[in-house]
Amino acid sequence: MKQAANSIVDRCHGLPLAFVTIGSLLSSRPVAEFVWDKIYKQLQTELANSDHVRAILNLSYHDLLGDLRNCFLYCSLFPEDYKMTWESLVRLWVAEGFVLSKEKNTPEDVAEGNLMELIHRNMVEVVENDEVGRVSTCKMHDIVRVLALSIAKEERFGSANNVGTMLLMDKEVRRLSTCGWSDHTISIVKFKRLRTLISLSTISLSPEMLSSIMSGSSYLTVLELQDSEITEVPASIGYNMFNLRYIGLRRTKVKSLPESIGKLSNLHTLNIKQTKIEKLPEEIAKVNNLRHLLADRYADEKQSDFRYFIGMQAPKELSNLHELQSLETEQLKKVMQLRSVWVDNISSADCANLFASLSSMPFLSSLLLSARDKNEELCFKNLRPRSTELSRMVIRGQWAKGTLDCPIFRGNETNLKYLALSWCHLGEDPLGMLASHLPNLTFLRLNNMHNANILVLSAHSFPRLKTLVLKHMPNVNQLNIMDGALPSIEALYVESLRKLDTVPEGIESLRTLKKLWLLDLQEDFNTVWYNNGMIQKMPHVPEVRVSG
Fold first, then answer.
1. Helix %, strand %, coil % for the chain, to 5?
2. Strand 366-371 vs strand 135-139: parallel, antiparallel, or unpaired?
3. 58 vs 543, residue with greater confidence
């Protein structure tokens, strides 16, 4: 029985709810190897059809409040093992109307609380946390998903289907997720009550197909087409989609947005990251309820150029949008309630006015600033954030002299947790300079810094740092880690330091380390690593990758 039992346990992936569910199923069956093998092979069918097993999930499900039930069932619409980002889930739940603002909390804050509650109840599992400890991606266990889908179907909440089963579907379905389309299917199937369409497939979805769906689905609230091959958004989208609150076109081949987009007065989220769109239409400024505008794109897919990503040209009237919380474009005016801002193509002359505007935003929590080119000097003297929530900064470009003495680093150092710097040369001792100014960092990335030859992490430096990334530093030939440095480090990534030909001194003393990558270093580094017996010295590190 051991092999059969191990196979079933592996399928549970350590999820308590799965153990309870499978254990209850097995308890009602004879204890025989062929029976357990058969159950394992037919596990999904058994879970969906067994009243005894369904009763266990129903107990967990019915213990949820109404809005949590909706959020839970919504997760089942994504493909099996699909990694859902917390940002997308939160924005989708808000668009669906599952959550409302409570007291001083925004709907997004309430939705994030719902996600944490589902995780706490083991109904959704964490895949990865970000550098500041927040949930980054999550997924629904496949066993739980099967049961959730059956509940969603019974309650007419929604359905996840492939092309072959679509023709047999309930045409009154309100939420539909599918892994592919065909012209034949769309010409036959109409969904008059459809509120949500999720298609995360690379199977071609033509404008004709999309127009056909929208023409018969006037209640559509969510349109998520991430990673699909769509090249065009139907011009009619603004004329018959009054309820549309969420449009997701990330990583599609769409080149422009129609002027009718301005008629979508209820639109909350527009995600056009990494599309082919270069300019936002002027009509976007008429979408008064827009809360999240995500619009940067890659200019260099390999991310080797200084400006590998660029913003999109935005209309001047964009500052009239008073609901915006997330803005990722080139232009920034007087949108005071922003929480996440990306600003590209900054010149030295822009700094004073731009940083003064950013400083006045009371809710600012995440900031990305990119200079016009790698030689443009940015002066942070006027960046004096009013917000006490600013914890994440990404900066690309040269720093003016004395930047670390500016208020952003002298007055905000206790709040700043995440810092990523590229092309800003801090002199011969960048790690030492940052360690003395920013003791509370949990994430630090240094990229494309050319001045330093020797990097030193002194004793007791960065006491809370969990992730350190050192990348593309062509002159570095030595890395020294003093005893007591990085006492909380979990991940150390050292990449493309082509002159590094010795094992970092003291690296074996990092007892909390879980991931160590030493990649693309001096060509003989592999030999040096093995000759120094580093495999035997670091058995406590689960994941080690080394290459010259």
1. 30, 20, 50
2. unpaired
3. 543
